[in-house]
Every structure is written in C-alpha cells, then in structure tokens.
Specification:
There is one protein chain. The protein is 49% helix and 6% strand. By secondary structure, the protein is mostly helical. It folds into two domains: 77 residues, no CATH class; 63 residues, no CATH class. The strands form two sheets. A two-stranded antiparallel ribbon has the order 1-2. Strand 1 and strand 2 form a beta hairpin. The radius of gyration is 17 Å and the shape is elongated. Bound molecules: iron/sulfur cluster (SF4). The site of iron/sulfur cluster has 10 residues, from loops.
Length: 158
C-alpha cells in the first residue's frame, strides 16, 4: 500500500513542509497519533524493521551487544559487524539481522539504541525527518498508519 501511495506520500511531505504550524505543534500531534497507532499493532507479527533496515551502531552499542551475547568485542567485530559509510559507525554484516529469531530479538535487553528508537516517531522535529518517514512507510505499518492519519488531521487533499 505504501508503494501504491509513493507519489501521494511525497506530495504530503511537501504539503507538511509548507504547513503553517509550529514544529512543536506538529510533534505533539505526531506523538499522540503514534501512541494510539502503536498500541494497536503487534510488532512481533511483523519485525520488518529487523529484516529490512540496518541499524546504525556505535562502539558502545557493540560493547553492550557483545556483553549480552557473552562474547568478546573482537569476536563480535570479526563475525558480525561491517563498517558503515559514516565515520565511527557500524552495522551488522547481514540482512535480515542475524539476531532475529522467530520475529523476536534474541538479544533484546542489549539491543542497540537505533533498534530501541525505531520507528523514531516519539522524537522531536518530525518535520525535519520526513525523508526517512516516507521511506519507512514501506517498512513499518506503524509509520504507514501514522502518516495516513496525519493526512486526515491536516486535511491533506491528494
Ligand atoms: S539487534 Fe535485535 S532489534 Fe536490532 S535489528 Fe537485530 S534483531 Fe532487530
């Protein structure tokens, strides 16, 4: 459905960019809708984020993750980590994430910050992160549904 609405979603992005409202006002609306939508969606029935998106990792993430697995950081680096295009950032070397088991994170309590934060809709400055939001409409049903609800709230005419 997100693919079908690809053009419309980009048009809504332009609409939001020009919308006459404070950044905080838009954030408050997004946060409220996000709470409502996420309460109705079972992430373990999907786990698309862990299958499609590569979380961006830093060394602290890798240390914590290794601890959770009970292996050394050097073993973790050698077997599971690749460099990210950004300096001092890393990613898992396989996709889907090799630590996803039956749609659950097998190292959940030690998962990286980026995994904890996904789909990032609780954060401030929604209006400045719309490229990622449109991309994530194809990954995450929460993002897709929040974006659809926003079209109604802001009276967007396709
Ligand atoms: S570390 Fe866990 S939460 Fe993060 S992508 Fe892998 S399976 Fe998903």
């Amino acid at each position: 459905m997100a693919r079908e609405r690809f053009d419309e979603n980009w048009r809504f992005r332009s609409f939001l960019k020009g919308y006459d409202a404070d950044v905080e006002e838009i954030d408050a609306t997004v946060h409220e809708i996000y709470r409502e939508v996420s309460a109705q969606i079972d992430c373990t029935a999907c786990a698309n984020c862990c299958k499609i998106v590569s979380p961006v990792l830093n060394m602290a993430d890798i240390q914590k993750f290794s601890e959770g697995l009970g292996i050394s950081v050097s073993k973790m680096m050698a077997e599971h980590i690749a460099h990210h295009e950004k300096p001092d950032r890393f990613r898992f070397n396989k996709k889907p994430c090799p630590f996803l088991e039956n749609n659950l994170c097998s190292n959940y309590d030690h998962r990286p910050r980026d995994c904890r934060s996904f789909p990032h809709l609780h954060k401030p400055d929604f209006i400045f992160r719309l490229w990622n939001v449109v991309d994530n409409c194809e990954v995450c049903p929460i993002v897709f549904n929040v974006y659809e609800r926003l079209k109604i709230v802001f009276a967007f005419r396709c």
